[in-house]
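worker-3 :: picked FINGER PROTEIN putative-RELATED
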Amino acid sequence: MMAHETRLLLPVFLLLIVTFCEQNHVHGEPKVPCYFIFGDSLVDSGNNNNLETIAKVNYPPYGIDFPGGPTGRFTNGRTVADIMGELLGFDDFIPSFLTVDSSEILKGVNYASGSAGIRQETGKQLGVNLDLSKQLENHQTIVSRIVDMVGIEPAASHLNKCFYWSVIGSNDYLNNYFIPQHYNTSSEYTPDKYAEALVKQYSQQIMTLYNSGARKVALNGIGPIGCAPYSTANYDTKGSLCVDSMNDAVNYFNRRLKSLVNQLNNDLAGAKFIYLNAVGFGSEYTASPGFSFKLNGCCKANEHGQCVPNQTPCMFRSLSLFWDLFHPTEVSNKLFCTIIISISEEDLVKFFVEFS
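worker-3 :: tokens ->
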């Protein structure tokens, strides 16, 4: 009886989430003058479209619920970065590095790349991607263009007020550590030592971002990747609803990342970092009785876990947490924005109050 009630209540809960996020879309002046996005396919808005890679999705049914159709976003509609931009007050989506022009760079750029990771080699078995270090190089190109436009001191002042969001790390597990047929990291490192190495490299990359003028930076933890449809279909769950060993591995990373955020806030004067819990990407909700039947995603997927081109997806997308075998639906992204606002509201208020 309880499981049946959960099945009835959770769809209603998701519809309430949608309503909440739509009602909280901010109009008027944005809370921040600019917004820069770094990361992987969870926030990629089309930077992979012209790359030689399997990890690109500029074809239907991707974008079926997005204005204008497919753009290279790995979901049916808006990514969590898009939704966050709306909540920050931006009327237009932040342009991708691939498409941005000089008239747009002052409001921000999206550098994210599907299959990319903290480590340079991550995801390269799928083809070319823009790893985080390359994204930071691209950001430096944009910073130089901004300096040329407005001058050194105005550029520095402008960049100090921007919001920087990094959503990366899951591919360093899904497309590196957990595919020993392509990478040897799992034989070189225990899960704890791998997390230590990842966060050490990540901290150096974050310092590069800080030295480019970033002062307000949000860092995402990695979600429970062992609950993704691809994981449960391809790895031994040992009777669990999820692949617990995968979730345990990323928890080492998340704990170290939280500690890093605290360290950065203590060490870097004039900067504010915040850790955002990645639970809202939907994975752990599939472990509830009401969503145990949702583990196949919303579209017919190929061997890489992406939607087969031009196939008709599920009809009730607003009640599905997963779009393909890895990525959340738009409603899951709305769920994420709601959860981080509700859980981290006090921290977020403190985080943004100094932007003015």
